[in-house]
Amino acid sequence: MYTLYDFLPSGNGYKIRLLLSQLDLPYRYVEKDILNGETQTEEFLKLNANGRIPLLQLENEECLAESNAILMYLAENTPFLPEDRLTKARVLQWLFFEQYSHEPNIAVVRFWTTHGGPTVAQKAQLDAKLAAGYSALSVMEKQLQKTDFLIGSSYTVADIALYAYTHVAHEGGFDLSEYPAVSSWLQRIKSQPKHTLITDEK
Length: 202
Known about the structure:
This protein has 202 residues and is of the alpha+beta class. The protein has seven helices and four strands, in the order E-H-E-H-E-E-H-H-H-H-H. Helix 1 crosses helix 6, helix 4 (85-114) packs antiparallel against helix 5 (120-144) and helix 4 runs parallel beside helix 6.
C-alpha cells in the first residue's frame, strides 16, 4: 500500500489525494504540519532531503517527491495520461505551466492570505503576484473556451494539477467571475466520479 505524507490544506498534496481517489487506490495518510517544522526533522529528511510534502512512499519503500512527478507516476497506463507521444507532451506542458506560471502566484497568495495575512514584505509583492495569477487564469480561459478539458475532451492529470489551486483561488482574493470557461471547467471536474474535497484525507 502507498503511504502519502501530506499537509491537508496543501493543493499540491490534494492533487495526489484526488488522483488516488479517482484511481480507487488505497493508501495510508500521514499528516505533516509544515507550519510546525514536521518536514524538517531528521526522520523526514531521510525520506525527502528537500524537506517538502507531498511525498509518496511506494510499496517497496522507495519515495517519490514533487507533486506533478507523483501524478505522472500514478497516471501511467491509466486513462488519466494519454499514450500518444504528442498528447502526453501537452500534458507535461500544462504541468510545467502549473509549476512555473500558476502555482507560484495563485497558491502563494492563498497561503499568505489564509495563514495570518501578508507580511509587510509580502504586501510589496502582492500586486505583481495577483497580476501574474490572473495572467495564468487568462491562458487557461483561452484554452477552455475551445475544449472541455485542458487536453481536448479528455480529463487528465493536467486538469487535476491545475484544478487543485484554481478551485481555491478565491481564498487568495482571486475573482473568477471574469473567467466563465474556467468556472465551467471547475464544475465539470467536481462532477467527475470519485471526486474528493481538499479537506478530505481520503
